[in-house]
Each structure stands twice: as structure tokens, then as C-alpha cells.
Design brief:
single chain, 272 residues, Methane Monooxygenase Hydroxylase, Chain G, domain 1, 2 domains, extended
């Protein structure tokens, strides 16, 4: 028979004491672990067993965004210098950061809606829309595009259509443009996953703690920070195809008419 877990079990006393007052050696001192591990509510004041996870996940998100912003400042400077190798390397780092930001949201899906509501009441009037890191991150695409346009397009007498299509050569302008497209895509994925998390925890028809409908977040998930990079793909597809609405001849039917086609789809008796 399972015994109920009480707040004063011997294990809770033992390990919570170690969490409250961890031993600080050189490693912990260098990383400021004392301050870092004190940045959450005291264990005795948590509203339920999931609040510590909620705080840590969101604090880690802020740290990842701080690193992403710091790295993107370097990217801006290297783009101004047209140091493309550095730009590509650092944008790859930013992409890894963005992916980790998205992946760790899965942790929050282990909370029940009931427990999340208890935590939500602790936020006062705050909401994720006030994230200092994300609000700063959203300001960076304007500068990224401005510097990219100046150094890799205008400065090289090119436009996006030429880089991707009519003068395509997989050059530096192209690889940097694709880095920006990746950054944009990962931002969209993060926002989309956030929508699913909200849907699972509080529902999309609810209002945020600011009184605004949560569905407003869906508009943000649809936003493209570098629309030119997405429009050029559509334009290329339209120009490659036949006239709009025209039905093209079936490859399968053409092959059958000339007696060709894939040997794996022939009649077995004919293949012998």
C-alpha cells in the first residue's frame, strides 16, 4: 500500500537543505551559482510541485535569449565587415540556441492545467508577452536586414531575386540570406510551439493576464521578419511553372504511352 508523501519526509529535509545551502567551491563561485540558485522562490513558498520547474524553464529561456542577442550583436558587426565565415558560424550558434529554446518548452507540457492555473495566479498581471529577452530579440531583425541589405545586396549591386534566381551562384550573399531565413523560421517555430503550449495549459479561447485574447499570439506566429526571403520563393515557383491553372501532362501517362516508366511498376509477367 502506497503511503502519502508528506512535506516533512526525511528525504525532503535532507535534499532541500542541500539545495538551500549548496557548497560553493571554485566552479560554483565562478558561475555565481549562489546567486543563480537563489533566483527562484524559496522551496517552502512554492505554490505547488511544478512552480519551481515553471520558474527555471522561463529563467533559462531568458538566459538563452541573452546569449542569442549578445551573439547577434557580433553578427551585425561581422556583417558590416563582410566577414561571412564568422557570420555563418555565429548564426549557426544562434540557430542552436533557438532550437533549445523550443525544445525545452516540452517540459512545461508535463504540468496539468489545474497546477498551471495555480502558478498563473502567482504572476500578478504579468505574462510571457513581457519577456525582456524576447522583446529585445524582436527588435533585432530590423538591424539585421538593414546591414545585410547594405553590405550584401546594395554593396554588391544585387537584389534578392538575382541572389536566389537569375544570378544564383550560391555566393556569400546567398548563404547569409539563408542564415537570416533560418533565424526567421526558428522564431516562427518558437512562437508556434508557444501557441500549442498555451492551448494545452489554459486554452486559446481564454484571455491573457493582461486581459487580451490569447489568440492574439497567433498573429505573431504568422509574422515574417524577412518577408523578402519568403516572397522570392513563391515568385520563383510561379515563374518556373506553366500558366496559372494549366494542367500539365502526367509523367506516368507519358511513360506508359512510350513503353517506358519505372521497371518496379511494370506488370510482373512483362518484366520477365
Amino acid at each position: 500500500m502506497n503511503k502519502p508523501v508528506t512535506p516533512d519526509t526525511i528525504f525532503r529535509q535532507k535534499y532541500h537543505a542541500l539545495l538551500d545551502k549548496p557548497e560553493m567551491l571554485d566552479y560554483g563561485t565562478y558561475l555565481h551559482c549562489q546567486q543563480l540558485l537563489s533566483a527562484q522562490k524559496p522551496l517552502t513558498e512554492l505554490c505547488n510541485g511544478d512552480e519551481l520547474q515553471f520558474q527555471i524553464v522561463h529563467q533559462v529561456e531568458e538566459l538563452w535569449m541573452k546569449l542569442a542577442i549578445y551573439t547577434l550583436v557580433d553578427v551585425l558587426e561581422f556583417m558590416q565587415q563582410e566577414n561571412t565565415l564568422r557570420v555563418v558560424t555565429l548564426m549557426k550558434r544562434v540557430s542552436f540556441i533557438q532550437r533549445m529554446m523550443s525544445q525545452q518548452l516540452d517540459l512545461l507540457e508535463t504540468m496539468s492545467p489545474k497546477e498551471y492555473q495555480q502558478i498563473r495566479l502567482q504572476l500578478g498581471n504579468g505574462s510571457g508577452q513581457e519577456s525582456p529577452g524576447f522583446r529585445t530579440l524582436l527588435k533585432m531583425p530590423t538591424d539585421l536586414w538593414s546591414v545585410f541589405n547594405e553590405q550584401y545586396l546594395v554593396g554588391r549591386n544585387k537584389n534578392i531575386e538575382q541572389v536566389y534566381d537569375s544570378q544564383y551562384s550560391h555566393d556569400e550573399s546567398y548563404v547569409v540570406a539563408e542564415c537570416l531565413a533560418e533565424f526567421d523560421e526558428q522564431l516562427q517555430k518558437f512562437r508556434s510551439l508557444h501557441i500549442f503550449l498555451i492551448q494545452r495549459s489554459i486554452g486559446l479561447e481564454a484571455k491573457s493576464l493582461k486581459g487580451r485574447a490569447v489568440t492574439l499570439l497567433e498573429n505573431g506566429a504568422k509574422h515574417r521578419f524577412f518577408p523578402e526571403l519568403w516572397r522570392v520563393r513563391s515568385s520563383m515557383t510561379d515563374s518556373w511553372g506553366s500558366a496559372y491553372g494549366e494542367v500539365r501532362e502526367s509523367i506516368h501517362e507519358v511513360n506508359n504511352q512510350v513503353g517506358g516508366g519505372c521497371p518496379f511498376h511494370q506488370n510482373p509477367s512483362e518484366a520477365l
